[in-house]
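Technical note accompanying the year-one report. For the benefit of new consortium partners, we illustrate the data format agreed upon in the data management plan: each record pairs a sequence with a structure-token string. No post-processing was applied to the example shown here.
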Amino acid sequence: MSQNPISSGRQRQRGLGAIAAIFVLVMLAALAAAVVRLSWSAQTSFAQDLQGARATQAAQAGIEWGLFKALRDGSWANCAGSQTVDLRTETGFRVTVTCSYVSYVEGETTAGAPRTVKVYTINAVACNGTAASCPDNASAASTHYVERMRQVMATDRNTEE
């Protein structure tokens, strides 16, 4: 018996169709993997942005705390060392605040006495590491570690004097 040439051609076409279907499935799987990876990357980036904003706000709170202690409260008028403010409950961050000052003689008072002005430099470093103060060099290699620094200079004299 001889084989029908039409039926043998159909068998080859069916085999080619299976290869094409497998190729399309592999391409769709690769596309789905790329979409999942892109979505994961976007979520990680958003989380880092949010943590960065929180760290900036914690550092700003540290600056305001340092200014209050140095200028208003008077308890830190000599800027002795650094102090760490624990804001982990509110923000998840610790803030290390350091202060230094330089005294200048700026003219005289009306009575002829020298007018001394202190110029304070206050630094605040906020981080979400595990160390007791910031910056936390041990945690800096972690992908979840966030650190922000703020600096301000202020004087203890009123401009109207």
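Partners are asked to follow this layout when depositing records. The helical segments are 5-73.
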